[in-house]
Amino acid sequence: MLTDNSYLLGICVYVAAACAALAYLTWWLGQYWTQARVALIVLLCAALLLTPAHPNAEVTTFAPALLVVLFEGMINGVEAARHALKPLAFMLFLAAVLAGLLRLIVFRKPKA
Q1: How far is Cα 63 from Cα 55, in angstroms, rounded to an integer?
Q2: Which of 5, 25, 41, 53 could be 65's S-S partner, Cβ–Cβ 3.0 to 4.6 Å?
Q3: Do 50 and 92 form a contact (C-beta atoms < 8 A)?
C-alpha cells in the first residue's frame, strides 16, 4: 500500500505529465488548426486526463476517472464503473461548453 508521501508524489508526477502532454498537444495542433478547434480538443483531453474519481467505495484516495472507468468497465462491467463515469461525463460536458464560450467570445472573427 502507498504511504501518504508516495501517493502525493505519484499524483504530482501524474498531473505534471498530463499538463506537459496538454502543452505539447496545444503547440502541435496549433500549427495546423484554428485556435477554437485546438481549445476544444485540449479541454476535452484535459477533462479526460485530470478528472479524479474514487476507485471504489472503500478507498479514500483518488485515481484518474478515465482509468477507473476503463478498468472497472473491463473487469466488473459498466455498472461498477458508473460512479466514475458520472464525473467524467460532467467534466467532458463542461469542457465542451467552455470551448463553445471561448469560440463565441474570445476566438470570434473580427467584423470587417
Answers
A1: 6
A2: 53
A3: no
Residues near 57 by Cβ (< 8 Å), separated by ≥ 6?
Answer: 83
Would you say 47 and 35 are in contact if contact means Cβ atoms under 8 Å apart?
no
Percent of the chain whose predicted confidence (pLDDT) is above 90? 66
DSSP codes of every residue in 28-82: HHHTTS-HHHHHHHHHHHHHHHH-EE-SSTT--S-EEHHHHHHHHHHHH-HHHHH
Residue 1 pLDDT grade (very low, low, confident, very high; cuts 50, 70, 90): low
CA 53 → CA 34, 41, 49, 85, 107, distances in Å? 32, 22, 11, 9, 32
Query: In the structure grid, which three cell numbers stand for residue 35, read together?
Result: 485556435
CA dist 14 and 26 (Å) reads: 18
Task: Please state, in angstroms and rounded to a whole number, the distance separating the CA atoms of residues 77 and 49.
Answer: 21
Amino acid sitting at position 56: N
Write down the pTM of the prediction.
0.87
